[in-house]
Amino acid sequence: MGYVIAVSGKGGTGKTLISSLLIRHFSKKTPVLAIDADPDSNLPEALGVKVERTVGDIRESITGEGVAAFEGKIQEVLVEERDFDLFVMGRPEQEGCYCVVNNILRVAIDSLSKNYDITIIDCEAGLEHLSRRTTRNVDFMIVVTDATRKGILTAKRVKEIADELNIKFKKIRVIVNRVAPELREEMENALNEAGLEVIGFIPHDPIVAEYDLKGKTVFELPEDTPVVQSFNEIVSKIEEELKTL
Fold it and tell me: Record's superkingdom (predicted)?
């Protein structure tokens, strides 16, 4: 039985960076399914993957047939790389309700993930994935925040809405990204007061913006950079907690 890890948070906090670092780490060890559930898709670029078609592209072709028709079209949107497979939600070609797309996403998480040891979901920014229940069967929810009041409030709302909707994550942990050392204790105290446990901190690292500007992928980040070193400490804790599920 595999594990499903979802990465959530408000826009701009670095959740795609965390998602891609998780994929980089776990894909060295085991089969990984990466799901980009954000309509504003950035994960393929971070991973250096070219995506020809997304769920949004095929929505119109299966709307009349029902979600079950999606099973025969999985290969149209599933990108198979050497160390991981990538499934991208994308945007519908036409305006309209995302209901079908979200139903397909739930099918992907519920059925496709069974074929992988680890599934990592880069959620859409904000909290819509909770109200749409696209992350209902997540084992480990990671909420990424920055050192801002808005980031803390979004992290609190993730937990509150999950409780309201009776969505039972086996674990929910917070990563504080781009945080100055002098703010760590204050951030951790504020999140603890909200009933959230911080699993680690990642400092501001200029190399992240530099590599993004140059079009380099997360796989090219050197191991000795602050962002990777901090992440490696965090992912070791995540692996230990997964063993307890």
Answer: Archaea
Alpha carbon of 11 to those of 40, 85, 171, 174, 207: distances in Å? 10, 24, 22, 15, 20
Instruction: Give 3-30 as a 3 state SS string.
Output: EEEEEEECCCCCHHHHHHHHHHHHCCCC
Q: With H, G, I as helix, E, B as strand and everything else as coil, classify residue 58.
A: helix
CATH of the domain spanning 3-242: 3.40.50.300
Beta bridge partners of 34: 86, 120
SS3 105: helix
Domain residue spans in the chain? 3-242
Q: What is the pLDDT of residues 125-168, one digit of tens each?
A: 766 665 565 566 788 999 999 988 888 888 888 888 888 877 78
Helix (H, G, I), strand (E, B) or coil at 32: strand
Kindly state the tokens that stand for 186.
Answer: 């204050």
- Cα distance between residue 51 and residue 194, in whole Å: 39
Instruction: Tell me how far apart the alpha carbons of residues 237 and 17 are, in angstroms, rounded to a whole number.
Output: 18
**For residue 122, what are the β-bridge partners?**
7, 36
pLDDT for 226 beyond 80: yes
Instruction: Indicate if the alpha-carbon torsion angle 126, 129, 132, 133 is positive or negative.
Output: negative
Which of helix, strand or coil describes residue 113?
helix
Q: Please check whether residue 200 is in contact with residue 234, taking contact to mean a CB–CB distance below 8 angstroms.
A: yes
Q: Are 3 and 139 spatial neighbours (Cβ–Cβ below 8 Å)?
A: yes
Cβ partners under 8 Å of residue 156, min gap 6: 194, 196
pLDDT tens-digit map of 20-60: 999 999 999 999 999 998 878 899 999 999 998 887 777 65
